[in-house]
């Protein structure tokens, strides 16, 4: 009997480890460190149309990084637009509203007039149609 | 039927002429004064004129899609 419990404990431990790994994988989907660095340094910023833009003229590495993310974003917007019966532009714009809202102080975002602002503790300047 | 001015009024002809002359003088002075002072000032705006072409995106659509957009941003956090 004691042996059985001992064996079960070992199994439970293995089970817990496997479970942790499974649960941890989706949480691992975080920003690439280079992308995070470009955001916080203000080289790139969020645009009202739902895509990333260059605040200053980008290095080839930054350009490649932004283009890659914007292509992935467009693919995601296209998929969600089909699911929600909307256009890619409409879904991208709605996402842009949220992405600008989620910028943290120090990051850059583009205002509807086209100027780049640095986010501070006050609410960002967004399009009047944003919720 | 034609009437002379003198036939239409009981005022003497000289009085009518004087009145008209003074009106003409007053009009001329007014005209010159207006011409000298009332220049229309047109200044170009210092900010660029932005024309928003996103008229196909309506606010009600943005509100409808808002929750789906939030959901996408949370699920694919590596590209947002």
Write the layout of secondary structure elements.
The complex is a heterodimer of chains A (131) and B (80).
Chain A: H1 2-27, H2 33-40, E1 44-46, E2 52-54, H3 60-83, H4 88-101, E3 108-110, E4 116-118
Chain B: H1 5-8, H2 13-37, H3 59-75
What does this structure look like?
The complex is a heterodimer of chains A (131) and B (80). Chain A is an alpha+beta fold and 131 residues long. Chain A has a domain at 31-118. Chain A contains four helices and four strands, in the order ααββααββ. Chain A has helices at residues 2-27, 33-40, 60-83, 88-101, and strands spanning 44-46, 52-54, 108-110, 116-118. A four-stranded mixed beta sheet of chain A has the order 2-1-3-4. In chain A, a hairpin with a 5-residue loop joins strand 3 and strand 4. Chain A is extended. Chain B is an all-alpha fold and 80 residues long. Chain B has one domain (5-79). Chain B contains three helices and no strands. Chain B has helices at residues 5-8, 13-37, 59-75. At the A-B interface, helix 3 and helix 4 of A face helix 3 of B.
């Amino acid at each position: 009997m004691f042996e059985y419990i001992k064996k079960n404990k070992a199994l439970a431990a293995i089970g817990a480890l496997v479970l942790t790994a499974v649960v941890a994988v989706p949480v691992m989907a975080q920003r690439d460190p280079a992308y995070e660095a470009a955001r916080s340094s203000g080289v790139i910023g969020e645009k009202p149309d739902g895509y990333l833009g260059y605040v200053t003229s980008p290095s080839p590495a930054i350009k490649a990084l932004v283009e890659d993310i914007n292509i992935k974003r467009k693919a995601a917007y296209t998929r969600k637009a089909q699911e929600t019966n909307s256009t890619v532009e409409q879904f991208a714009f709605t996402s842009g509203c949220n992405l600008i809202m989620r910028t943290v102080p120090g990051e850059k975002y583009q205002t509807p007039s086209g100027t780049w602002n640095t986010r501070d503790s006050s609410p960002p300047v967004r399009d009047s149609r944003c919720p | 039927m034609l009437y002379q001015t003198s036939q239409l009024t009981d005022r003497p002809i000289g009085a009518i002429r004087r009145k008209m002359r003074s009106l003409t003088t007053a009009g001329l002075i007014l005209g010159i004064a207006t011409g000298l002072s009332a220049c229309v000032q047109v200044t170009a705006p210092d900010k660029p004129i932005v024309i928003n072409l996103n008229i196909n995106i309506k606010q009600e659509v943005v509100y409808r899609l808002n929750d789906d957009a939030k959901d996408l941003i949370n699920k694919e956090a590596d590209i947002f």
